[in-house]
Amino acid sequence: MHQELLASLRQLSDGELLARVQDISAREREATSLLVAHLAELDTRDAHLRAGHGSLFAYCRGVLALSEQEAYYRIAVARVARRFPLVLDLLESGAVNLTTVRLLGPHLTPDNHRRVLDSAQGKSKAQVEEIAAALWPRPDAPTFVRKLPGARPANPLPSGPGLPGAHGPHAGPPPADPGPIQSAAAATVSGVLPPPAKRSTEVTPLAPDRYRVQVTIGSDTLEKLRLAKDLLRHAVPSGDEAVIFDRALTALIADIAQKKFAAAENPRSSTPPAPGSRHVPADVKRRVWMRDLGRCAFVGTAGKRCDERGFLEFHHVTPFALGGEASFDNIQLRCRRHNAYEARLYFGDDGRTRSGTSSPTAALSRPGRLDRAGTLEGTVAPKGRAP
């Protein structure tokens, strides 16, 4: 049955497929809103307890087959929706999502909930976290360096009488850490729902224009940090790590810009490339990077601009194979996928141009290969061709 479904979908046009996806997504949002509303009512009753489940969280896991995170998000949002029913309308319309409501829920009040939810519509998780930080500013995180415990062995030795790790004549292995998920399930018995565990590397907004960054580093990096603090004692007597990192990143960006774009404080105007050359002058790269703000400049049919900022490439708007020059007006930033996508529009998967003539850049126009000159990083020009 599913094979037939997939086969039928391959017969749809792009427009039909996109329309179906949007329709299904709208129905999914409606179903999610309904589920959240029902969970909000179920949370006020003992029905799940009478069914043998110790908490609403356990019921969602065991009966509804939701994952730990899915159950946590829906219960948290249901409790917010019980206070502010407007949440259900916004969920159904797609104006906000479960993550947005979960992040803002603790800070919503009868006076501010409409204004705050309106400001969060269409925002990313990072942007919503900044809204929450503005509602509830927290003090700067203290700076500290501590050694983390070593990694636990994959298969620890058993503990018992006469074995390593035993703490008595009949001692067995210590009880296992229940972990965040089991702790969350246990906590929901009393109605308290702790947030899911975060990764060790994170950026957390604390207040407007203030962020906490947590990262794990090695001993060599720690020694470099200490050395940098010693060398900068005259400029940063306090040894503030935040100032040290800011200066280090400023120096790193300047160094990378110098290597990639031959950046200079007073750059000279570069000479135009020779006719037929694929070379993109450093001056053009600098100006293009600043104009496109270090972001893919591809704009979709509905006016949506791509958000990608990593692994960008310098793209010829009019392809080099069709006479396009490496000029400021003809060069734009593209992510790898949109660069390859536009190559297929011009040359097709078989390396032939729209007019049907054989393209000298056929190998470059196929998906997964470079099709334009001048890449930033992580790419290698095909053998025999200038980058």
What are the salient characteristics of this protein?
mainly alpha; 43% helix
What topology does this entry show?
Layout: H1 2-9, H2 14-42, H3 47-50, H4 56-62, H5 68-83, H6 86-93, H7 98-104, H8 113-119, H9 125-135, H10 179-187, E1 202-207, E2 210-214, H11 219-231, H12 241-261, H13 282-291, E3 312-316, E4 331-335, H14 336-347, H15 362-365
Antiparallel strand pairs: 1-2, 3-4
Our estimate of the beta-strand percent is 5-15%
Task: Give helix and strand order, one letter per element, not per position.
Answer: HHHHHHHHHHEEHHHEEHH
Low-confidence stretches: 157-192, 353-387
Radius of gyration based on Cα positions: 28 Å
Average pLDDT rating: 77
Alpha-beta classification: mainly alpha
Percent helix among the residues? 40-55%
Strand order across the largest sheet? 1-2
Molecular structure report:
With 387 residues, this protein is mainly α. 43% of the residues lie in helices and 5% in strands. The protein contains 15 helices and 4 strands. The protein has helices spanning 2-9, 14-42, 47-50, 56-62, 68-83, 86-93, 98-104, 113-119, 125-135, 179-187, 219-231, 241-261, 282-291, 336-347, 362-365; strands at 202-207, 210-214, 312-316, 331-335. The chain has a two-stranded antiparallel sheet. Strand 1 (202-207) and strand 2 (210-214) form a beta hairpin.
Give the gist of this structure.
With 387 residues, the chain is mainly alpha-helical. It has helices at 2-9, 14-42, 47-50, 56-62, 68-83, 86-93, 98-104, 113-119, 125-135, 179-187, 219-231, 241-261, 282-291, 336-347, 362-365, and strands spanning 202-207, 210-214, 312-316, 331-335.
